Amino acid sequence: MKKILNKKLLILILIDIVLLAISYLLANVVRFDAKIGASELIVIKQTIVPIILCKMVVFYFFNLYRGMWRYTSIVDLLNVIKAIAVSFAILITLILVCSKFQGFSRSVFVIDAVFSLILIAGIRLVIRLLLSNNIFSFNKQDINSSKHKKLIIIGAGDAGEKVVREIYDNPKMNYRVVGFVDDDGNKAGKQIHGINILGKINELKDVVNNKGADEILIAMPSMSGKEMRRIVDICELIKIPYKTLPGMGEIIDGKVSIKTIRDVSYKDLLGRHSVQLENDKISDFLKNKCVLITGAGGSIGSELCRQICKHGPSLVVLFDAGETNLYSIQMELKHVVTYLKYRAVLGRIQDKELVDEVFRKYKPDVVFHAAAYKHVPLVERNPWEAVSSNIVGTNTLVKAAIAHKVGRFVLVSTDKAVRPTNVMGASKRITEKIMQFHPSGPTRFMAVRFGNVIGSSGSVIPLYKNQIKKGGPVTVTHPEITRFFMTIEEASQLILQAFTMGDGGEIFILEMGTPIKILDMARDMIRLSGKEPDTDIEIKFIGLRPGEKLYEELITEGEGIVKTGHKKILVLKNNVPTEGLTPHETNLDNLSCLEEKIKELKVLADSHDAKGIKKKMKEIVPEYTISDDEAVV
Q1: 276, 283, 253, 257: which is closest to 494 by C-alpha?
Q2: Which of 206, 235, 264 is a domain's end point?
Q3: Do 28 and 154 lie in a common domain?
Q4: Is 416 an active-site residue?
Q5: What is d(CA 394, CA 592) in angstroms, rounded to the nearest whole number?
Q6: I need a labelling partner for 458 at 20 to 30 A (CA). Which of 16, 78, 150, 626 fits?
């Protein structure tokens, strides 16, 4: 009743009735060459009301009065076409059954259907144009040109079109788009929403000068790192501000918006392509399930939270030892992601009583274990914390998962676990062995191993940003040092994809691409800040840090690596280490041996015996190369 009594809705219904009447009258005028006789007038008077009523009823069932005409789209146009077609079929059938078209002209109904489609669809388009102010956009922008920044958009594709539409729909936007540039020759000379595509990207400087542009927007979220680097170099020469839309992997709801525009960052130059996920398969494992995430406030843990919430879990349990990080992610879930089905647990994973209570109370179906100390030099000088958190904590979680019959347990590991040269890497390799030693049962254990993550806490990117901000120097440990890199979003998405593939005991390896020279990264970041390396900002070499390698690896020689169904994920099948064991020993024997050594490690950690800890780690991980760096105490 409220809808019926709505004045605006009544006006729209009245407009449709008038247009349908006009359509029917015009159809008769066209059919009879404007020479309508008395017999035709009688037929029109007898049929016009039933025909209009029939169409209005069909329109109602096709939801033509439920949409907001301000946002009329192709979907609404398709609904109009369907409604006209169905009403035409109903009318033809009724007249055929009742009179076999005696006294009726068949062509009148065909012409009427065409006119009805044009008028009903047309009025909706006109209303949308009037409400969105699009037909006045150019005049308004010309009048207020001094108040709007002139914007050139690089990329005349879907992303660029969406940005233009959003600027038009919001008169408060401080931009006026004056042109596009795009390397697709087929687009040259064409227009998007009345805005010309003015040339190719190499011609950007001339386009900017001719149009007097104030700013450049790079709207190509799926481009390669090489292409982004080329565009950034061109923009740097023009000396006006330039910004970009983030890659699709960064946008949590998949929607491109001008609100997401930001400065070009190093990860744009990295050019990691968006991950193709089997979202239906991931949802099958997560929908209506309780998911526990340790280290939920960390870089990977928090992004896992954002990604997992999209798949409709019944509850997300956020477990973290850091008060600030935990508060930050729960506030983001509440106010940004708007997902309220979470519980925040502040505590340490090596607290056996707390862990058991959490598992007993919430009964998680899936565990993502991302909690760990990971900063190589700090952990090297405080190895007892690596034992306590990384090793004992993981062992505590694994036992709790088995006791409470968790379905899947995913360990987030690192490339530093391969032939480790530091305590952090050795501790993560031990956690992989803990996972591998447990035989497959009700709980399926798996690990995901990858390299460095761009922008994560403790990584080199935030350090370089601060150093550049302060005027330098930017510190690089060694001119030849390289690392694998991926974005936080990509790493988290691939963890979710890999976890659906595990049968138990696998170590999944994420495809990390080509190693990147840290020196090249430092130079790129200096240039992105508008400075010149070695001229405006000094680069200083400070030597390798304790336990640091020149080159990282993702697999140990001899590990059998196998392709999976996903091009970015490889797998090491369950290959339980057997150093010092006879062929007749079982997994349980291996586990008992490992458990004993973990107990010995804990004793050494409790007494802060750094040398003893490293020596014991060497017993468990023979390929571990011990660093001579001194502990802090």
Answers
A1: 276
A2: 264
A3: no
A4: yes
A5: 16
A6: 626
**pLDDT score at 5:** 47
Of 501, 511, 509, give the one whose Cα is nearest residue 567: 511
Question: Would residue 48 count as lying in a domain?
Answer: yes
Spatial distance between the Cα atoms of 232 and 408, rounded to a whole number of angstroms: 43
Please say which residue of 84, 104, 132 terminates a domain. 132
Q: Are residues 353 and 492 in the same domain?
A: yes
pLDDT tens digits for range 317-354: 999 999 999 999 999 999 888 888 999 999 999 999 99
* Residue among 328, 329, 291 at smallest CA distance from 308: 291
**Is 220 a domain residue?**
yes
Per residue in 138-163, pLDDT (tens digit) is: 444 444 455 678 899 998 888 888 88
Asked whether residue 224 falls in the same domain as residue 367, the answer is no
Give the type of residue at 518: I
Provide the domain count of the chain.
3
Answer yes or no: do 348 and 410 share one domain. Answer: yes
Peptide bond into 473 cis (omega under 30): yes
Q: Which is the catalytic residue, given 416, 428, 549, 568?
A: 416
* Residue range of the domain that includes 98: 2-132
The neighbouring-strand residues paired with 483 are: 516
CA dist., res. 553 & res. 551, Å (int): 7
- Name the average pLDDT for the chain: 82
| CA–CA separation, 55 and 64 (whole Å) | 11
| CA–CA dist 167, 138 (Å, integer) | 12
Question: Is residue 598 left, alpha or beta, with left meaning phi > 0 and alpha meaning psi from -120 to 50?
Answer: alpha
